[in-house]
Amino acid sequence: MTRFWLIRHALVAENARAMLYGTMDVELCPATLAAQAPQFLTLAGMLPNNAVWVVTPLQRTVHTAATLIAAGHQGAVPIVEPDLIEQHLGDWQGLPHADLPERLTMPAHPFWPLAGTECPPRGESMQDVIVRVGAAMERLALEHPNTDVIIVSHGGAIRAAVAHALGIAADNTLHLSVQNISLTRMERHHDGWRVVCVNTMASG
Description:
With about 200 residues, the protein is an alpha/beta fold. The chain has one domain: Phosphoglycerate mutase-like (Rossmann fold). Helix content is about 30%, strand content about 20%. The protein contains 7 helices and 6 strands, in the order βαααβαβαβααββ. It has a 6-stranded mixed β-sheet. Helix 4 links the parallel strand 2 (about 50-55) and strand 3 (about 80). Helix 5 (about 125-145) crosses helix 6 (about 155-165). The chain is globular, with a radius of gyration of 16 Å. It starts with a strand and ends with a strand.
């Protein structure tokens, strides 16, 4: 069995939140990061020692992981896994949220800027993300048997991992809430996946 501990990165800067940032390498919000120091301490205490740490190529996951490591897991060196990155929104990345509706080819999802099968020009749909992330999760399980794997990733990618585990459709996936610095736990057993919890918030 491989035990996965998936954490969504901390809140991004206010100027980034005003647009569709997707895989853009935006900064974290310094004020929120400082204010959430108690939650980081609590979350770090919930995570196992001697785990494999994984981040994506984007600095918001690298910085979040570094903050957690400093809060209680000194010495951990994360590996970078590009296939766990956020949904690529193609030509729509950088657009103000208000400019998106006129570009959609189908109604937006109630809890995501676009429907699960909507594919931005030169981007990917949430269904594409589920395929990409699912393959990465299976590969990590094979590479790290009988191990705890802590993954600091993105809201869309964590939803996709849960969707892969449960075999649910892209639009259903987007009904899952995955908040910043929340914890989602999954296990890859020999006979399949088990989802232990989704969107657990650390108190502080």
